[in-house]
Amino acid sequence: MELPWNRKNLADVWTWPHIFWLNVFGWWGEEAETEFGRKWLTRFRSLSIVYFACLLNSMMIQVFIKFAEGDIMQNLFTIFASGPGMVGIFKFFDLVIHRKVLKSVMDRLSGLISEVNDPILNVKARKSLKQTWIIFLLTLLVFDSVVLHWALRPILAAILHNEKTRIIESWPVFLDDWTQFFLSYLFQVPGVIILGHSFYIYDNLYFCTSDVILCHLNILKLKLNRLVLNDGEKSTRELVSCVKYHATILRYYFTCKGLISSFFLY
């Protein structure tokens, strides 16, 4: 199997694999390749929004109940379990709301890469994009493992220790018997899987976008280092090209700036 950074065409090295993973649960359904996919993925996204609203209210109610029953130290698990879940919901909404802006930036950055036709710059760009792929794949592997752990923990506790536990704190508790445990698990496990997915894809997307922008800045640096300034037409043309390239990078950066501030907030 050919590694992505070894593909013949530089424009095909980095193809934004996030789009596929964003659409595992239909968040960017409009980007699906077929009409059938676009229709059903957008419907699934709408159902996810309703489900997240119910899950968020369920977690908030349980947090208030726990705090009414005791002090903060006795309810650290409630905070630990519910807090990240709420953050995951905010990340989900942020990805959906800013879909068009993010997709526009991704397309423009890909267009810039396709304009690199110098052999030396091609090698440097491949090296930088290889790093971007490594960031993407490692984040995917690590966080998928974490999500799998959280999703399977109640099942393993039930099988190995005959204990009825929940993945996150939500209301109603619903753990009096094994039927309630099973129903509670069915209610929570889709949320945990989808919220965990939103965590790592959200962070992954912004890290990789930043890394691709750095790749373009490295290309610009190499162009400037090789630039010979004189009164010749070729020198003027190359200087103008570098200025335009820099202006384009800055334009994409400022487009992302407002979105990245929300990333650091989460």
TrEMBL record:
Taxonomy, superkingdom: Eukaryota
Electron transport is among the record's keywords: no
A Gene Ontology molecular function term of the record: olfactory receptor activity
Keyword Membrane annotated: yes
GO CC terms, sorted: plasma membrane
Membrane topology: Multi-pass membrane protein
Range of residues in the leader sequence: none
Transmembrane region(s): 47-65, 77-97, 133-152, 182-202
Keywords assigned: Cell membrane, Membrane, Olfaction, Receptor, Sensory transduction, Transducer, Transmembrane, Transmembrane helix
InterPro entries: 7tm6_olfct_rcpt
Cell location: Cell membrane
GO biological process per UniProt: signal transduction
Entry protein name: Odorant receptor
Organism lineage: Eukaryota, Metazoa, Ecdysozoa, Arthropoda, Hexapoda
